[in-house]
């Protein structure tokens, strides 16, 4: 997606350990017009998959997910990163976050994810695919079907796409990064 790629090249910044900071327009300050354009593009790419629900992970996935849900007319559920004491029928999966260097328990209530659901997962980044793997586990536990996974930015060099491909789930990313070596952002030409 040209608009996003241009914005990444203009405003994205590289950090140690292969981290791309996009705080200026996605992760801290947000650009609603760009967010709407990105969500429209994800909705377009997944319009034929028959999704009945959007699933994301708090916190940075919520903004793109709610826009996609609004455009597609679907409910949006966000998985939480710790189990609330009041949650009934919690489905859980352990996920390692390499950006935060910690492991957390991803959880969603079985009330909001169940066997009738055809789920489209939406998140800001695909890196090593750990969050995606956790979501796949949650969907399996719920008996729900994952019909697609859509990301704003994919760091292709961290190979998360291969984790998802093992499960045969259609995957789309709006901007794919080939490398952040030497603090230089190199995009894949697709
Ligand atoms: P994964 O589980 O695929 O390794 O990482 C995905 C999650 O980590 C995303 O939900 C995202 O919030 C965070 N993340 C991974 N890499 C980056 C990055 O380079 N920049 C930012 N801002 N977040 C990242």
Structural overview:
- With 190 residues, this protein is an alpha/beta fold.
- It is built from 6 helices and 10 strands, in the order H-E-E-H-H-E-H-E-E-E-E-H-E-H-E-E.
- The protein has helices spanning 2-11, 23-27, 32-45, 62-72, 130-142, 160-165, and strands spanning 13-15, 19-21, 53-57, 76-79, 90-97, 102-109, 118-126, 145-155, 171-179, 186-187.
- It has a 6-stranded mixed beta sheet with strand order 4-3-7-8-9-10. A two-stranded antiparallel sheet has the order 1-2.
- Helix 3 packs across helix 4 (62-72).
- The radius of gyration is 16 Å and the shape is globular.
- Bound molecules: guanosine-5'-monophosphate (5GP).
Radius of gyration: 16 Å
What are the distinct ligands in this entry? guanosine-5'-monophosphate
Proportion of beta-strand residues: 25-35%
What is the H/E string?
Answer: HEEHHEHEEEEHEHEE
What is the tally of helical segments?
6
- Numbering strands along the chain, what is their spatial order in the largest sheet? 4-3-7-8-9-10
Annotate the secondary structure layout:
Layout: H1 2-11, E1 13-15, E2 19-21, H2 23-27, H3 32-45, E3 53-57, H4 62-72, E4 76-79, E5 90-97, E6 102-109, E7 118-126, H5 130-142, E8 145-155, H6 160-165, E9 171-179, E10 186-187
Parallel strand pairs: 3-4, 3-7, 7-8, 8-9
Antiparallel strand pairs: 1-2, 5-6, 9-10
Bound molecules: guanosine-5'-monophosphate (5GP).
């Amino acid at each position: 997606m040209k608009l996003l790629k241009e914005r990444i090249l203009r405003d994205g910044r590289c950090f140690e350990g292969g981290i791309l900071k996009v705080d200026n327009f996605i992760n801290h300050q947000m650009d609603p017009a760009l967010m709407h354009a990105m969500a429209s593009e994800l909705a377009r790419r997944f319009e034929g998959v028959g999704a009945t629900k959007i699933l994301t992970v708090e916190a940075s996935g919520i903004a793109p997910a709610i826009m996609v849900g609004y455009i597609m007319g679907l409910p949006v559920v966000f998985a939480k990163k710790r189990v609330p004491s009041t949650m009934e029928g919690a489905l859980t999966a352990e996920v390692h976050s390499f950006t935060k260097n910690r492991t957390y328990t991803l959880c969603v209530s079985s009330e909001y994810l169940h066997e009738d659901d055809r789920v489209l997962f939406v998140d800001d980044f695909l890196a090593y695919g750990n969050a995606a793997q956790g979501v796949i586990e949650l969907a399996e536990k719920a008996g729900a079907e994952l019909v697609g996974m859509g990301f704003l930015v994919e760091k292709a060099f961290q190979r998360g796409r291969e984790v998802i491909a093992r499960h045969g789930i259609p995957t789309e990313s709006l901007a794919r990064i080939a490398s952040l070596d030497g603090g230089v952002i190199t995009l894949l030409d697709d």
